[in-house]
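hey m, so remember when u said the tokens were messed up on ur end? i reran from scratch. heres the input so u can diff it against urs
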Amino acid sequence: MVNKRHPDMPVSLDSSVTDDAKLSQLPSQLSSLYGLTPKVESAIIDALSREDTGRLNMLMDPLHPADKADFIKRINHQDTASLVQLVGADFDVEILAYLDEDAREVVVEHLSSDVIAASLPDLDSDDVVTIAEELEPEEREEILASLSEKDRVLVEQSLSFPEDSAGRMMQREMVVVPPFWTVGQTIDSLRSEAGGQDDFYIVMVTDATGHYVGEVSLDKLLCSQRPKRISQIMDTDIQPIPVSMDQEEVALLFRRYGRVTSAVVDPDGRLLGIITIDDIIDVIDEEAEEDLMALAGVSDASIRSSIVETFKARVPWLFVNLLTAVLASIVIGLFETTLDRIVALAILMPIVASMGGNAGTQTVTVAVRAIAMREFSTKTAITFGLRELYVGVINGVLFAVLAAGLAYVWFGQTDIALIIAIAMCANIVVAAISGTLVPLALIKLGSDPAIASSVFITTITDVVGFMVFLGLAALLLL
């Protein structure tokens, strides 16, 4: 968990922050700054381009590590390397905990191991794990040597757990008391020993063997009489999180039960650490971003990715899309004679496919989100499918009438208007059905519906749209 040291209120900077005559005013203004304003960002970029180390440090030092990380995310790899090299030993290692994986990798590559090692003892254990997992094994060993033996063992244990598991994201610093202590003993202990604990909301309770037995919230602790035993006021109904649980499942538990802090236990029930809400927010953002990017088939993409990385991430699904597009083209080829004789069909045909594709994407997006949120059961899937079917029928009829009216005004032929109306309605209904069934089918097959659904939905709506539209044309007009 990262230290929270934001000031309370923002201030605005003078419009001439980049003038040397005004630079002396910046530290006091920046010290009460909440967030990275465009003017500050411009001044930092200017100092970076001039390679003015003193000015760069003066501008960045008062900012929160999150704001510094935000700035690094906005610049390219070359400028990031220059920034790290210019700042040198004054680089705030806490920034690394706020960076995404790509940006963190670039910073670590150009940051001295000595700088990282000097700062690690001041960081929380979960942030140390986040930084250490990006390092090469040899470099990791060298840097972890700067920690005390106890802290090093705890970090190495966390690194041994699977990536994206509760064990990787948990924090080892926590307040733990035995159940036989009184409220008075606990409060006195917190006053004398918990000064180094940055933020805590829950006091964990363990037995003599270290097994988790319950927890006490701070409000209940402070509102209880001093003679009361912890065992009398602790909550024993809250289930701890298994150390091997996937981070996405952990995030769902926090969201569902409104948790702020949760205990993490090993398979035998011994307390290992805690997970706090700030880490869960990061997980929720990360998972949401992954699902969003996966829907477009660019799950590994980043604005900082190189040309080669971007190419490798996108080409596989574009290749699959090419194959499915060929299938749609084959369907069109079957009606080549019909298209040659009636040009209006070629003009109206893309409308049918486009509307079906968009309708299918709307449905599949809602379905994939529900699947990701674990909201889909057999009952909800049936309810959702029926709702989408009804909406598909309503939308189909509505846009069938609109498309028919457009076609009639455009070409003045009743038959063509009727054909596009039927095709439009059928394709939107099929899109609604497939948008529900395709993600469920992909789950049964063991595939990620977020990545593969859009390709199949597009293919189904294209093939069905063209087949119905051109098939009806061949029957009614020829």
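this time it looks ok to me. The beta strands are 176-177, 202-206, 212-217, 241-242, 261-265, 271-276. if urs says something different then somethings off w ur setup not the seq
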